[in-house]
């Protein structure tokens, strides 16, 4: 079965997971298994992204690249400083101190856009918002289909008006960062199929559904609900080819954690993770300030991961995390398409 929008044998998308989980090996294995793979450009230098594109291009012909869209908003430095003080004890556990000035950046948006214009890939997806329509047009003129990630009908209508070719509809059960364009928004519980139906009523673009997928039954429901394809991320975190840290893998598989929660404590943007001690200690103090909080806690999280400290690590996980298996990517894809 070839999807009507993404050129893959099966209607499964290997979602881009920034921070190391998505590797070239994972993307190549997903492609070989008949799924459509994405590379995650988030947090990478343009040079690293260029090298990964070249490496994956040598192993598969069709793939996408996901970009984080900077919002350019001014943040409240006083509130960020207050949050830094609130987590100072966590930092001191690893002999760290808060940076005196909040770090803000645009994730090298201009350089990555230039790279993708000069060396186009089949699909570019956008997360956290929309860039100027002129940037979307530049990507399309370079030969890429452009896909916006949306979480509501209003976002879908705006993305369609901006000229994107398709939409990824992210439900509230998705692991890691919510794609909501409004980082102050509270992510309410709900199903991906309901989010899909709401967006389908507002847009005629092809739709890829994402969030909370825990197996073939969920894939069938979303395809029957109008999705062209279904994206999975959390289900790939334990696969052999994923770059997931040992500490994160152990937490997902341990049974020690019994719920996920949407939190801003790690990055200043809503993201779904396994509930751990860091969340419990600081959820009342969280601030909306991305990427400043991301940079504030980045080294702490790196040290926690290296030390096996699940209490302070951002354990990203969607609501379907219990269905993740330690197995090759090909086996996970086979389980997802069983019966289609």
From TrEMBL:
GO biological process: 'de novo' pyrimidine nucleobase biosynthetic process; response to toxic substance
GO molecular function, one term: dioxygenase activity
Keywords, alphabetical: Detoxification, Dioxygenase, Flavoprotein, FMN, Monooxygenase, Oxidoreductase
Known cofactor(s): FMN
Oxidoreductase keyword on record: yes
Catalytic activities: 3 propionate 3-nitronate + 3 O2 + H2O = 3 3-oxopropanoate + 2 nitrate + nitrite + H2O2 + 3 H(+)
A Pfam family it matches: NMO
UniProt similarity note: Belongs to the nitronate monooxygenase family. NMO class I subfamily.
PANTHER family recorded: NITRONATE MONOOXYGENASE-RELATED (PTHR42747)
Name by which UniProt lists this protein: Propionate 3-nitronate monooxygenase
């Amino acid at each position: 079965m070839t999807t009507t929008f993404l050129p893959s044998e099966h209607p499964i998308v290997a979602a881009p997971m920034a921070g190391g989980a998505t590797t070239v090996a994972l993307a190549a294995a997903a492609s070989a298994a008949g799924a459509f793979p994405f590379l995650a450009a988030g947090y990478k230098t343009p040079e690293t992204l260029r090298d990964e594109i070249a490496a994956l291009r040598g192993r598969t012909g069709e793939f996408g690249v996901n970009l984080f869209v900077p919002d350019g908003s001014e943040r409240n430095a006083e509130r960020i400083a207050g949050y830094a003080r609130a987590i100072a004890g966590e930092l001191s556990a690893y002999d760290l101190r808060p940076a005196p000035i909040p770090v803000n950046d645009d994730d090298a948006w201009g350089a990555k856009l230039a790279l993708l214009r000069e060396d186009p890939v089949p699909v570019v997806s956008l997360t956290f918002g929309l860039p100027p329509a002129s940037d979307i047009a530049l990507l399309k003129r370079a030969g890429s289909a452009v896909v916006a990630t949306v979480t509501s009908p209003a976002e879908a209508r705006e993305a369609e008006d901006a000229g994107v070719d398709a939409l990824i509809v992210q439900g509230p059960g998705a692991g890691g960062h919510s794609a909501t364009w409004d980082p102050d928004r509270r992510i309410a519980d709900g199903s991906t199929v309901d989010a899909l139906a709401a967006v389908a009523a507002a847009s005629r673009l092809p739709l890829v559904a994402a969030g909370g997928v825990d197996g073939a039954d969920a894939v069938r429901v979303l395809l029957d609900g109008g999705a062209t394809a279904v994206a999975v991320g959390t289900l790939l975190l334990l696969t052999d080819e994923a770059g997931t840290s040992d500490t994160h893998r152990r937490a997902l598989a341990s049974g020690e954690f019994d719920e996920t929660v949407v939190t801003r404590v790690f990055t200043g943007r809503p993201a779904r993770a396994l509930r751990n001690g860091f969340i419990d200690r600081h959820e009342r103090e969280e601030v909306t300030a991305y990427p400043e909080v991301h940079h504030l806690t980045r080294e702490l999280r790196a040290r926690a991961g290296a030390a096996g400290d699940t209490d302070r690590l951002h354990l990203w996980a969607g609501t379907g995390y219990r269905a993740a298996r330690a197995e090759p990517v090909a086996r996970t894809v086979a389980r997802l398409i069983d019966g289609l």
